[in-house]
From TrEMBL:
One Gene Ontology molecular-function label: diphosphomevalonate decarboxylase activity
Keyword Disulfide bond included in the entry's annotation: no
Protein name (record): diphosphomevalonate decarboxylase
Record InterPro entries: GHMP_kinase_C_sf, Mev_decarb, Mev_diP_decarb, MVD-like_N, Mvd1_C, Ribosomal_Su5_D2-typ_SF, Ribsml_uS5_D2-typ_fold_subgr
Repeat listed as a keyword: no
EC number: 4.1.1.33
Family of this protein: Belongs to the diphosphomevalonate decarboxylase family.
Alphabetical list of PANTHER family matching this protein: DIPHOSPHOMEVALONATE DECARBOXYLASE
Signal sequence extent: none
Keywords on record: ATP-binding, Lipid biosynthesis, Lipid metabolism, Lyase, Nucleotide-binding
Domain Diphosphomevalonate decarboxylase-like N-terminal per the UniProt entry, residue ranges: 9-164
Mvd1 C-terminal domain sequence ranges: 179-309
């Protein structure tokens, strides 16, 4: 074991969405998913064994967290401590360079970084594939933040085979633009929204069938580097996921009026000849898949249309790393 370790992980944006769990304890998803890792948004987390404290301490963005939040982190730390027969309290200090709980996948980078740091400090030194089965227990999408580029989270049917695998390094002129519509905390968490959708939406079975086909098709498009097809599949898949929520009881949506305005603007920009395709996760913010070579021009058009909202370009991000 080491005394301390620190890791950095980037967030990812799902192009083929994961929406719904078939096992809420193991975080086994109802469908496989595929994402793009981004370099602009990330989390840095340090962990330290500390015999001077009686229980775990969790500092997030320089503020000590509540007992409830700390217990959530402690349960995750126990996955690693139990493997090495350790009960020593751990001091966790994490900084998100991502707006927390705003649909920008901060939990993915957070648990990926925490898992990588724990993998190092405990001396377990698992490969990334095995580590992904651990970080999944903190946040499902964290599996995908362990790798860079395009990453698939294979749903599996048990703890050992629900894991992330790299698909492509996305080094072929790809970027993503985020239009931050609202970076405040969501009123309906992703977990609550998922559960309500799975349990009550009549649209949900069709979503699973459609998402399975979308994943197969987008992997083929990535293999042939067919950017237009990747974009079209991404856009359709995201809107289908949001459609399942409108079929829930009661119906709900993460979209805000400004979100719809951004979607319309992206369609308009695409009509002018720029290659850009939108997607949205469980939040009001809009992400736009585009060519890196065209990103600044598209950003300029979006800033002109939405001068009061951050419009952020992100290049393709790399995998988790110790720092």
């Amino acid at each position: 074991m080491k005394q301390s370790a620190k890791a950095k992980a980037h967030t990812n944006i799902a192009l083929i969405k994961y929406w719904g769990k078939k096992d809420p304890e193991l975080f086994l998803p109802m469908n496989s998913s595929l994402s793009l890792t981004l370099d602009e948004f990330y989390t840095e987390t340090s962990v330290e064994f500390n015999t001077d404290i009686e229980k775990d301490c969790f500092i997030l963005n320089h503020e000590e967290q509540s007992e409830k939040e700390t217990q959530k982190i402690s349960r995750f730390l126990d996955l690693f401590r139990q493997e090495i027969g350790c009960t020593t309290p751990i001091h966790v200090s994490s900084q998100n360079f991502v707006p927390t709980a705003a649909g920008l996948a901060s939990s993915a980078s957070a648990f990926a970084a925490l898992g990588a740091a724990m993998n190092s400090i405990t001396g377990m030194n698992m490969d990334l594939s095995t580590l992904s089965t651990y970080v999944r227990r903190g946040s499902g999408s964290a599996t995908r933040s362990l790798y860079g580029g395009f990453v698939e989270w294979q749903m599996g049917d048990c703890n050992e085979n629900s894991l992330a695998v790299p698909v492509d390094d996305a080094s072929w002129d790809i970027a993503m633009i985020t239009v931050a519509v609202n970076t405040k905390q969501k009123t309906i968490s992703s977990r609550e929204g998922m559960q309500l959708t799975v349990e009550t939406s009549n649209f949900y079975p069709s979503w699973i069938e459609s998402a399975t086909k979308d994943l197969k098709d987008i992997k083929q498009a990535i293999h042939t580097k067919d950017f237009e097809q990747v974009g079209l599949i991404t856009e359709a898949n995201g809107m289908k996921m949001h459609g399942t929520m409108l079929g829930a009881l009661p119906p709900f949506t993460y979209m805000e009026p400004l979100s719809l305005e951004v979607l319309a603007k992206v369609r308009e920009i695409r009509g002018q000849g720029w290659q850009c395709y939108f997607t949205m996760d469980a939040g009001p913010n809009v992400k736009i898949l585009c060519r890196q070579s065209e990103a600044e021009a598209i950003q300029t058009l979006l800033k002109k249309a939405f001068p009061n909202n951050p419009v952020i370009i992100s290049k393709v991000g790399g995998g988790v790393e110790l720092i």
